[in-house]
Write a structure and sequence with these properties.
The protein is built from 13 helices and 16 strands. It is an enzyme of class 3 (hydrolase).
Length: 533
Protein backbone atom coordinates (compact mmCIF):
# COMPACT_ATOMS: atom_id res chain seq x y z
CA UNK A 1 0.00 0.00 0.00
CA UNK A 2 1.38 3.42 -0.94
CA UNK A 3 2.05 6.20 1.55
CA UNK A 4 -0.69 8.88 1.49
CA UNK A 5 0.31 12.33 0.30
CA UNK A 6 0.53 15.21 2.82
CA UNK A 7 -2.61 16.69 1.26
CA UNK A 8 -4.45 13.39 1.66
CA UNK A 9 -3.44 13.28 5.32
CA UNK A 10 -5.04 16.69 5.85
CA UNK A 11 -8.22 15.65 4.07
CA UNK A 12 -8.36 12.44 6.10
CA UNK A 13 -8.14 14.53 9.27
CA UNK A 14 -11.03 16.69 8.09
CA UNK A 15 -13.12 13.63 7.22
CA UNK A 16 -12.36 12.14 10.61
CA UNK A 17 -13.81 15.29 12.16
CA UNK A 18 -17.10 14.72 10.35
CA UNK A 19 -17.44 11.32 12.03
CA UNK A 20 -16.09 12.19 15.48
CA UNK A 21 -17.86 10.40 18.34
CA UNK A 22 -20.72 12.40 19.86
CA UNK A 23 -19.00 12.02 23.25
CA UNK A 24 -16.22 14.31 22.00
CA UNK A 25 -18.59 17.27 21.99
CA UNK A 26 -18.08 19.58 24.95
CA UNK A 27 -14.68 18.19 25.91
CA UNK A 28 -11.90 20.67 26.68
CA UNK A 29 -9.16 21.53 24.21
CA UNK A 30 -5.54 20.99 25.21
CA UNK A 31 -2.43 22.96 24.24
CA UNK A 32 0.89 21.71 25.60
CA UNK A 33 3.80 24.06 24.88
CA UNK A 34 7.23 22.57 25.50
CA UNK A 35 10.20 24.94 25.51
CA UNK A 36 13.70 23.59 24.84
CA UNK A 37 16.67 24.10 27.20
CA UNK A 38 14.78 26.72 29.21
CA UNK A 39 16.16 27.61 32.63
CA UNK A 40 13.99 27.78 35.74
CA UNK A 41 15.22 31.34 36.16
CA UNK A 42 14.30 32.38 32.61
CA UNK A 43 10.78 33.36 33.67
CA UNK A 44 10.29 36.72 35.31
CA UNK A 45 7.57 35.16 37.47
CA UNK A 46 10.23 32.81 38.86
CA UNK A 47 13.26 35.07 38.98
CA UNK A 48 13.08 38.83 39.42
CA UNK A 49 16.25 39.41 37.39
CA UNK A 50 14.48 38.23 34.22
CA UNK A 51 12.74 41.02 32.31
CA UNK A 52 12.06 39.36 28.95
CA UNK A 53 8.90 37.30 29.55
CA UNK A 54 5.91 39.67 29.88
CA UNK A 55 3.48 37.25 28.21
CA UNK A 56 4.57 34.28 30.30
CA UNK A 57 4.39 36.43 33.42
CA UNK A 58 0.85 37.40 32.43
CA UNK A 59 0.06 33.72 31.93
CA UNK A 60 1.34 33.04 35.45
CA UNK A 61 -0.80 35.88 36.85
CA UNK A 62 -3.91 34.58 35.10
CA UNK A 63 -3.26 30.95 35.94
CA UNK A 64 -1.22 28.77 38.29
CA UNK A 65 2.57 28.68 38.55
CA UNK A 66 4.29 25.49 39.68
CA UNK A 67 7.61 26.01 41.43
CA UNK A 68 8.51 22.35 42.09
CA UNK A 69 7.84 20.99 38.59
CA UNK A 70 10.28 18.61 36.87
CA UNK A 71 11.07 17.26 33.45
CA UNK A 72 11.09 13.47 33.35
CA UNK A 73 14.69 13.49 32.13
CA UNK A 74 17.27 16.19 31.56
CA UNK A 75 17.89 15.65 27.87
CA UNK A 76 15.75 15.87 24.74
CA UNK A 77 14.45 12.50 23.52
CA UNK A 78 13.88 10.83 26.92
CA UNK A 79 12.08 13.90 28.25
CA UNK A 80 9.73 14.04 25.25
CA UNK A 81 9.08 10.31 25.25
CA UNK A 82 8.07 10.46 28.90
CA UNK A 83 5.74 13.41 28.36
CA UNK A 84 3.92 11.61 25.53
CA UNK A 85 3.70 8.22 27.32
CA UNK A 86 3.51 9.08 31.03
CA UNK A 87 6.38 6.62 31.56
CA UNK A 88 10.08 7.07 32.32
CA UNK A 89 12.72 5.91 29.87
CA UNK A 90 13.42 2.73 31.87
CA UNK A 91 9.85 1.72 31.00
CA UNK A 92 9.28 3.21 27.53
CA UNK A 93 12.78 2.36 26.26
CA UNK A 94 13.94 5.87 25.35
CA UNK A 95 17.02 6.47 27.50
CA UNK A 96 19.11 8.83 25.35
CA UNK A 97 18.82 10.95 22.22
CA UNK A 98 18.12 9.70 18.72
CA UNK A 99 20.45 10.65 15.86
CA UNK A 100 20.01 11.98 12.33
CA UNK A 101 20.69 8.45 11.07
CA UNK A 102 18.53 6.65 13.66
CA UNK A 103 16.46 3.78 12.29
CA UNK A 104 14.28 3.51 15.39
CA UNK A 105 12.48 5.81 17.78
CA UNK A 106 9.90 5.65 20.53
CA UNK A 107 8.97 1.93 20.51
CA UNK A 108 5.86 1.28 18.47
CA UNK A 109 4.24 -0.74 21.26
CA UNK A 110 4.22 2.39 23.44
CA UNK A 111 0.95 4.33 23.23
CA UNK A 112 1.21 8.11 22.87
CA UNK A 113 -1.05 10.73 24.39
CA UNK A 114 -2.10 11.72 20.86
CA UNK A 115 -3.25 8.18 20.10
CA UNK A 116 -5.41 8.07 23.24
CA UNK A 117 -6.94 11.49 22.61
CA UNK A 118 -7.57 10.86 18.92
CA UNK A 119 -9.45 7.68 19.82
CA UNK A 120 -11.52 9.85 22.20
CA UNK A 121 -12.59 12.12 19.34
CA UNK A 122 -9.84 14.75 19.39
CA UNK A 123 -8.18 16.40 16.43
CA UNK A 124 -4.43 16.18 17.10
CA UNK A 125 -1.37 18.07 15.88
CA UNK A 126 2.33 18.17 16.64
CA UNK A 127 4.12 21.35 15.64
CA UNK A 128 7.85 21.81 16.21
CA UNK A 129 10.62 19.51 17.32
CA UNK A 130 9.88 15.77 17.43
CA UNK A 131 13.14 13.89 18.25
CA UNK A 132 11.41 10.55 18.84
CA UNK A 133 12.31 8.90 15.55
CA UNK A 134 11.66 10.07 12.00
CA UNK A 135 12.19 6.91 9.97
CA UNK A 136 9.25 4.75 8.91
CA UNK A 137 6.42 4.43 11.40
CA UNK A 138 8.31 6.33 14.10
CA UNK A 139 7.35 9.56 12.31
CA UNK A 140 4.71 11.59 14.23
CA UNK A 141 2.16 11.06 11.45
CA UNK A 142 2.05 7.43 12.57
CA UNK A 143 2.05 8.18 16.32
CA UNK A 144 -1.43 9.60 16.73
CA UNK A 145 -1.06 13.04 15.16
CA UNK A 146 -3.48 14.06 12.40
CA UNK A 147 -1.14 16.86 11.40
CA UNK A 148 2.59 17.44 11.77
CA UNK A 149 4.67 20.49 10.92
CA UNK A 150 8.21 20.79 12.22
CA UNK A 151 11.74 19.50 12.40
CA UNK A 152 12.48 15.86 13.20
CA UNK A 153 15.17 16.53 15.83
CA UNK A 154 17.10 19.41 17.40
CA UNK A 155 17.74 22.28 15.02
CA UNK A 156 21.49 22.13 15.56
CA UNK A 157 21.50 18.63 13.97
CA UNK A 158 21.77 19.91 10.42
CA UNK A 159 23.21 22.89 8.61
CA UNK A 160 21.13 25.89 7.53
CA UNK A 161 21.65 29.04 5.47
CA UNK A 162 20.82 31.04 8.60
CA UNK A 163 23.08 29.37 11.19
CA UNK A 164 22.39 31.93 13.90
CA UNK A 165 24.36 32.17 17.12
CA UNK A 166 26.06 29.14 18.62
CA UNK A 167 29.07 28.39 20.81
CA UNK A 168 31.25 27.63 18.95
CA UNK A 169 29.74 29.08 15.76
CA UNK A 170 28.85 26.73 12.90
CA UNK A 171 29.12 27.49 9.16
CA UNK A 172 26.14 27.78 6.83
CA UNK A 173 25.18 24.95 4.49
CA UNK A 174 27.42 24.57 1.44
CA UNK A 175 25.81 25.58 -1.85
CA UNK A 176 28.24 24.01 -4.29
CA UNK A 177 30.81 21.23 -4.25
CA UNK A 178 31.80 19.49 -1.04
CA UNK A 179 30.65 20.35 2.46
CA UNK A 180 32.54 23.03 4.35
CA UNK A 181 34.98 21.96 7.00
CA UNK A 182 33.21 22.26 10.35
CA UNK A 183 34.67 24.58 12.96
CA UNK A 184 33.60 22.12 15.66
CA UNK A 185 32.79 18.42 15.86
CA UNK A 186 29.34 19.55 17.07
CA UNK A 187 28.59 21.21 13.71
CA UNK A 188 26.66 19.34 11.02
CA UNK A 189 27.73 20.24 7.48
CA UNK A 190 26.91 17.18 5.36
CA UNK A 191 23.10 17.28 5.56
CA UNK A 192 20.81 20.28 5.82
CA UNK A 193 18.13 20.53 8.49
CA UNK A 194 14.74 19.46 7.04
CA UNK A 195 11.29 20.92 7.67
CA UNK A 196 8.41 18.46 7.41
CA UNK A 197 4.73 18.96 6.76
CA UNK A 198 3.17 15.60 7.51
CA UNK A 199 5.29 13.06 5.59
CA UNK A 200 6.86 15.47 3.10
CA UNK A 201 10.00 17.56 3.41
CA UNK A 202 8.84 21.04 2.41
CA UNK A 203 12.13 22.87 2.98
CA UNK A 204 15.75 21.77 3.31
CA UNK A 205 17.57 23.60 4.74
CA UNK A 206 15.09 25.21 7.11
CA UNK A 207 15.06 28.98 7.19
CA UNK A 208 15.48 29.51 10.93
CA UNK A 209 14.72 33.23 10.56
CA UNK A 210 11.09 32.50 9.64
CA UNK A 211 10.55 29.30 11.66
CA UNK A 212 8.86 31.00 14.63
CA UNK A 213 6.35 32.72 12.36
CA UNK A 214 5.66 29.49 10.46
CA UNK A 215 4.99 27.65 13.72
CA UNK A 216 2.54 30.35 14.79
CA UNK A 217 0.75 30.20 11.43
CA UNK A 218 0.57 26.40 11.49
CA UNK A 219 -0.88 26.49 15.00
CA UNK A 220 -3.48 29.07 13.99
CA UNK A 221 -4.53 27.07 10.92
CA UNK A 222 -4.80 23.84 12.91
CA UNK A 223 -6.90 25.43 15.65
CA UNK A 224 -9.18 26.99 13.03
CA UNK A 225 -9.63 23.66 11.22
CA UNK A 226 -10.41 21.91 14.49
CA UNK A 227 -12.92 24.63 15.36
CA UNK A 228 -14.58 24.31 11.97
CA UNK A 229 -14.86 20.53 12.40
CA UNK A 230 -16.55 20.84 15.78
CA UNK A 231 -14.01 18.51 17.38
CA UNK A 232 -11.97 19.24 20.50
CA UNK A 233 -8.26 19.52 19.75
CA UNK A 234 -4.91 18.59 21.22
CA UNK A 235 -1.98 20.73 20.09
CA UNK A 236 1.54 19.68 21.10
CA UNK A 237 3.78 22.64 20.33
CA UNK A 238 7.46 21.80 20.87
CA UNK A 239 9.41 25.02 20.42
CA UNK A 240 12.90 25.48 19.00
CA UNK A 241 13.53 28.11 21.71
CA UNK A 242 15.79 28.21 23.74
CA UNK A 243 18.01 25.57 22.14
CA UNK A 244 20.97 26.82 20.11
CA UNK A 245 21.45 28.07 17.49
CA UNK A 246 19.58 31.22 18.39
CA UNK A 247 18.50 32.97 15.19
CA UNK A 248 17.56 36.50 16.24
CA UNK A 249 18.59 40.06 15.54
CA UNK A 250 18.99 41.62 18.99
CA UNK A 251 18.01 45.29 19.23
CA UNK A 252 20.63 47.76 20.44
CA UNK A 253 21.51 47.23 24.07
CA UNK A 254 19.91 43.80 24.32
CA UNK A 255 21.78 40.51 24.47
CA UNK A 256 21.26 37.61 22.09
CA UNK A 257 19.73 35.27 24.66
CA UNK A 258 17.38 37.93 25.99
CA UNK A 259 16.20 38.76 22.47
CA UNK A 260 15.52 35.09 21.73
CA UNK A 261 13.71 34.70 25.05
CA UNK A 262 11.50 37.66 24.22
CA UNK A 263 10.74 36.14 20.80
CA UNK A 264 9.68 32.88 22.45
CA UNK A 265 7.59 34.80 24.95
CA UNK A 266 5.80 36.64 22.14
CA UNK A 267 5.02 33.34 20.42
CA UNK A 268 3.46 31.96 23.61
CA UNK A 269 1.43 35.15 23.88
CA UNK A 270 0.09 34.61 20.35
CA UNK A 271 -0.90 31.01 21.16
CA UNK A 272 -2.69 32.16 24.32
CA UNK A 273 -4.60 34.73 22.27
CA UNK A 274 -5.60 32.01 19.78
CA UNK A 275 -6.88 29.87 22.64
CA UNK A 276 -8.85 32.76 24.14
CA UNK A 277 -10.43 33.60 20.81
CA UNK A 278 -11.55 29.98 20.53
CA UNK A 279 -13.62 30.63 23.63
CA UNK A 280 -12.25 31.48 27.05
CA UNK A 281 -12.73 28.59 29.40
CA UNK A 282 -12.69 25.91 26.71
CA UNK A 283 -8.93 25.35 26.50
CA UNK A 284 -6.28 24.20 28.98
CA UNK A 285 -2.87 25.63 28.11
CA UNK A 286 0.08 23.94 29.84
CA UNK A 287 3.55 25.48 29.41
CA UNK A 288 6.77 23.84 30.57
CA UNK A 289 10.28 22.82 29.47
CA UNK A 290 12.06 19.65 28.40
CA UNK A 291 15.11 20.15 30.65
CA UNK A 292 17.34 22.82 32.12
CA UNK A 293 19.77 25.11 30.31
CA UNK A 294 22.73 23.85 28.27
CA UNK A 295 25.53 25.40 30.30
CA UNK A 296 28.35 24.66 27.85
CA UNK A 297 26.78 27.23 25.51
CA UNK A 298 27.95 29.96 27.89
CA UNK A 299 26.21 33.30 27.25
CA UNK A 300 23.69 31.49 25.03
CA UNK A 301 22.48 29.31 27.92
CA UNK A 302 19.57 30.07 30.21
CA UNK A 303 19.41 31.10 33.84
CA UNK A 304 19.40 28.55 36.64
CA UNK A 305 18.00 30.97 39.20
CA UNK A 306 18.76 29.51 42.64
CA UNK A 307 19.32 25.97 41.26
CA UNK A 308 23.09 26.30 41.11
CA UNK A 309 24.09 22.78 42.19
CA UNK A 310 26.80 24.23 44.39
CA UNK A 311 28.17 20.86 45.57
CA UNK A 312 28.74 19.73 42.00
CA UNK A 313 30.35 23.00 41.03
CA UNK A 314 33.05 22.44 43.62
CA UNK A 315 33.74 19.07 41.97
CA UNK A 316 33.74 20.51 38.45
CA UNK A 317 31.34 20.60 35.53
CA UNK A 318 27.84 21.96 35.12
CA UNK A 319 24.81 21.07 37.30
CA UNK A 320 22.29 21.81 34.53
CA UNK A 321 21.12 19.94 31.40
CA UNK A 322 22.14 16.24 31.27
CA UNK A 323 22.50 16.04 35.05
CA UNK A 324 20.26 14.95 37.93
CA UNK A 325 20.89 18.18 39.85
CA UNK A 326 17.87 20.48 40.23
CA UNK A 327 19.15 22.76 37.48
CA UNK A 328 18.95 19.86 35.05
CA UNK A 329 15.33 18.85 35.58
CA UNK A 330 13.43 21.47 37.62
CA UNK A 331 11.73 23.52 34.92
CA UNK A 332 9.25 26.40 34.64
CA UNK A 333 5.62 25.32 34.49
CA UNK A 334 2.39 27.29 34.09
CA UNK A 335 -1.20 26.15 33.63
CA UNK A 336 -3.96 28.41 32.30
CA UNK A 337 -7.65 27.58 31.97
CA UNK A 338 -9.97 30.51 32.75
CA UNK A 339 -12.80 29.53 35.05
CA UNK A 340 -11.22 26.20 35.97
CA UNK A 341 -7.63 26.82 37.08
CA UNK A 342 -7.25 29.48 39.79
CA UNK A 343 -5.50 32.70 38.84
CA UNK A 344 -2.62 34.28 40.77
CA UNK A 345 -1.83 30.96 42.45
CA UNK A 346 1.56 29.43 43.16
CA UNK A 347 1.70 25.70 43.86
CA UNK A 348 4.56 23.91 45.59
CA UNK A 349 3.23 20.44 44.72
CA UNK A 350 5.96 18.15 43.41
CA UNK A 351 4.90 17.46 39.82
CA UNK A 352 6.47 16.22 36.60
CA UNK A 353 5.99 16.20 32.85
CA UNK A 354 4.96 12.53 33.18
CA UNK A 355 1.78 13.83 34.84
CA UNK A 356 0.58 15.54 31.66
CA UNK A 357 -0.41 12.23 30.03
CA UNK A 358 -2.69 10.80 32.75
CA UNK A 359 -4.11 14.23 33.62
CA UNK A 360 -5.22 15.04 30.07
CA UNK A 361 -6.52 11.51 29.57
CA UNK A 362 -8.68 11.91 32.69
CA UNK A 363 -9.93 15.37 31.66
CA UNK A 364 -10.86 13.97 28.24
CA UNK A 365 -12.77 11.17 29.98
CA UNK A 366 -10.61 8.67 28.12
CA UNK A 367 -8.95 5.49 29.39
CA UNK A 368 -5.29 4.83 30.11
CA UNK A 369 -3.67 2.13 27.93
CA UNK A 370 -3.73 -1.30 29.64
CA UNK A 371 -0.95 -3.74 30.52
CA UNK A 372 1.61 -1.21 31.68
CA UNK A 373 2.37 0.99 34.67
CA UNK A 374 2.67 4.74 34.66
CA UNK A 375 5.01 7.08 36.48
CA UNK A 376 2.63 10.00 36.05
CA UNK A 377 -0.37 10.93 38.17
CA UNK A 378 -3.71 12.55 37.37
CA UNK A 379 -2.97 15.90 39.01
CA UNK A 380 -6.21 17.65 38.04
CA UNK A 381 -7.02 18.31 41.75
CA UNK A 382 -3.77 20.26 41.95
CA UNK A 383 -4.55 22.13 38.73
CA UNK A 384 -7.96 23.13 40.03
CA UNK A 385 -6.62 24.30 43.41
CA UNK A 386 -8.38 21.55 45.33
CA UNK A 387 -5.08 20.07 46.55
CA UNK A 388 -1.41 20.90 46.75
CA UNK A 389 -0.23 17.31 47.03
CA UNK A 390 1.67 15.81 44.12
CA UNK A 391 4.21 13.02 44.12
CA UNK A 392 5.60 11.68 47.37
CA UNK A 393 8.50 10.14 45.44
CA UNK A 394 10.00 11.37 42.17
CA UNK A 395 12.66 9.48 40.22
CA UNK A 396 15.39 11.28 38.25
CA UNK A 397 17.03 9.16 35.52
CA UNK A 398 20.63 9.54 34.42
CA UNK A 399 20.67 11.74 31.33
CA UNK A 400 24.23 11.78 30.03
CA UNK A 401 26.44 13.39 32.67
CA UNK A 402 27.04 10.30 34.82
CA UNK A 403 25.92 6.70 35.17
CA UNK A 404 24.26 4.48 32.58
CA UNK A 405 21.71 6.41 30.53
CA UNK A 406 18.18 6.06 31.83
CA UNK A 407 19.01 4.26 35.07
CA UNK A 408 17.58 5.66 38.28
CA UNK A 409 20.35 6.83 40.61
CA UNK A 410 18.75 9.95 42.10
CA UNK A 411 15.33 10.46 43.66
CA UNK A 412 13.20 12.81 45.73
CA UNK A 413 11.29 11.83 48.85
CA UNK A 414 9.32 14.85 50.05
CA UNK A 415 11.91 17.59 50.62
CA UNK A 416 14.86 15.18 50.56
CA UNK A 417 16.97 14.57 47.44
CA UNK A 418 19.21 11.49 47.38
CA UNK A 419 22.08 10.82 44.98
CA UNK A 420 23.59 7.38 44.49
CA UNK A 421 25.64 8.74 41.57
CA UNK A 422 26.73 12.31 40.81
CA UNK A 423 28.51 13.96 37.92
CA UNK A 424 28.70 17.27 36.11
CA UNK A 425 27.98 17.92 32.44
CA UNK A 426 30.35 19.97 30.30
CA UNK A 427 30.48 23.52 31.62
CA UNK A 428 31.18 26.80 29.84
CA UNK A 429 34.84 26.56 30.87
CA UNK A 430 35.10 23.08 29.33
CA UNK A 431 35.30 21.24 32.64
CA UNK A 432 33.38 18.00 33.23
CA UNK A 433 32.59 16.81 36.73
CA UNK A 434 33.81 13.27 37.44
CA UNK A 435 31.32 10.47 37.97
CA UNK A 436 31.16 9.56 41.64
CA UNK A 437 29.27 6.71 43.32
CA UNK A 438 27.81 7.28 46.77
CA UNK A 439 26.99 4.48 49.19
CA UNK A 440 25.39 5.54 51.42
CA UNK A 441 23.82 8.22 49.23
CA UNK A 442 24.34 11.95 49.40
CA UNK A 443 21.16 13.49 50.81
CA UNK A 444 20.16 17.15 50.62
CA UNK A 445 17.25 18.88 52.36
CA UNK A 446 15.92 21.09 49.55
CA UNK A 447 13.61 23.02 51.87
CA UNK A 448 16.61 24.79 53.33
CA UNK A 449 19.25 24.05 50.68
CA UNK A 450 17.74 24.54 47.22
CA UNK A 451 21.25 25.33 45.99
CA UNK A 452 22.29 21.73 46.80
CA UNK A 453 25.36 23.01 48.54
CA UNK A 454 25.74 20.98 51.74
CA UNK A 455 24.66 17.31 51.98
CA UNK A 456 23.42 16.12 55.33
CA UNK A 457 26.07 14.79 57.67
CA UNK A 458 25.85 10.99 57.56
CA UNK A 459 26.17 10.90 61.35
CA UNK A 460 23.40 13.45 61.93
CA UNK A 461 20.03 12.52 63.40
CA UNK A 462 18.26 13.91 60.34
CA UNK A 463 20.26 11.73 57.95
CA UNK A 464 19.81 8.59 60.04
CA UNK A 465 16.06 9.28 60.34
CA UNK A 466 15.42 9.74 56.61
CA UNK A 467 17.83 7.15 55.13
CA UNK A 468 15.63 4.08 55.84
CA UNK A 469 12.63 5.69 54.16
CA UNK A 470 14.72 6.68 51.12
CA UNK A 471 16.22 3.20 50.89
CA UNK A 472 12.77 1.57 51.00
CA UNK A 473 11.35 3.96 48.43
CA UNK A 474 14.31 3.37 46.11
CA UNK A 475 14.09 -0.42 46.40
CA UNK A 476 10.32 -0.40 45.81
CA UNK A 477 10.68 1.82 42.74
CA UNK A 478 13.32 -0.43 41.19
CA UNK A 479 11.18 -3.50 41.91
CA UNK A 480 8.14 -1.87 40.32
CA UNK A 481 10.13 -1.12 37.17
CA UNK A 482 11.68 -4.61 37.05
CA UNK A 483 8.24 -6.25 37.13
CA UNK A 484 6.61 -3.90 34.61
CA UNK A 485 5.94 -4.38 30.91
CA UNK A 486 8.92 -2.41 29.61
CA UNK A 487 9.92 -1.54 26.07
CA UNK A 488 13.29 -1.43 24.33
CA UNK A 489 14.06 1.25 21.76
CA UNK A 490 16.01 0.52 18.59
CA UNK A 491 19.05 2.81 18.59
CA UNK A 492 20.64 1.35 15.46
CA UNK A 493 21.80 3.75 12.76
CA UNK A 494 21.79 3.70 8.98
CA UNK A 495 22.78 6.61 6.71
CA UNK A 496 19.79 5.67 4.54
CA UNK A 497 17.49 6.82 7.36
CA UNK A 498 18.73 10.42 7.04
CA UNK A 499 15.92 12.73 5.89
CA UNK A 500 17.00 13.97 2.45
CA UNK A 501 14.91 15.95 -0.01
CA UNK A 502 17.32 15.56 -2.92
CA UNK A 503 20.38 13.36 -2.76
CA UNK A 504 21.53 14.87 -6.08
CA UNK A 505 22.20 18.23 -4.42
CA UNK A 506 24.89 19.05 -1.90
CA UNK A 507 23.62 18.76 1.70
CA UNK A 508 20.26 17.44 0.34
CA UNK A 509 19.35 20.98 -0.60
CA UNK A 510 15.87 21.59 -2.02
CA UNK A 511 12.78 23.65 -1.45
CA UNK A 512 9.43 22.20 -2.47
CA UNK A 513 6.77 24.72 -3.52
CA UNK A 514 3.43 24.67 -1.78
CA UNK A 515 0.82 22.70 -3.70
CA UNK A 516 -2.98 22.75 -3.56
CA UNK A 517 -4.84 19.94 -1.84
CA UNK A 518 -5.01 16.87 -4.03
CA UNK A 519 -8.26 14.93 -4.52
CA UNK A 520 -8.62 11.67 -2.63
CA UNK A 521 -7.81 8.50 -4.51
CA UNK A 522 -10.01 5.47 -3.98
CA UNK A 523 -7.65 3.88 -1.48
CA UNK A 524 -7.65 7.05 0.61
CA UNK A 525 -11.44 7.21 0.40
CA UNK A 526 -11.68 3.67 1.75
CA UNK A 527 -9.34 4.52 4.62
CA UNK A 528 -11.46 7.60 5.38
CA UNK A 529 -14.59 5.45 5.43
CA UNK A 530 -12.99 3.10 7.95
CA UNK A 531 -12.26 6.09 10.18
CA UNK A 532 -16.01 6.66 10.50
CA UNK A 533 -16.79 3.14 11.68
Amino acid sequence: MGTPSPQAVLVLAALAGLCAPPAAQGKPNFIVILADDLGWGDLGANWVETKDTPNLDELAAEGTRFVDFHSAASTCSPSRASLLTGRLGVRNGVTHNFAVTSVGGLPLNETTLAEVLRAAGYSTAAIGKWHLGHHGHHHPSFRGFDYYFGIPYSHDMGCTDTPGYNVPPCPPCPRHGTAASPTSKDCYTDVALPLFENLAIVQQPVNLSSLTERYAEAAAHFIQRASDSGRPFFLYLALAHMHVPLEVTPPPGRGIYGAALREMDALVGRIKLLADRRGKGSTLLWFTGDNGPWAQKCELAGRLGPLVGAWQRTQGGSPAKQTTWEGGHRVPALAYWPGRIPAKRTSSAMLSTVDIFPTLVALAEATLPPNRRFDGLDVSPVLFGQSDVGHKILLHPNSGAAGKDGEIEALRLAQYKAFYTTGGAKACDGSIGPEERHQPPLIFNLDRDIQEQEPLDVASREYQAVLPAISRAYAQALEDIATDNVSVADYSKDPAATPCCSAQHVACRCQAPASPAAPLDRGTQRRAARLCL
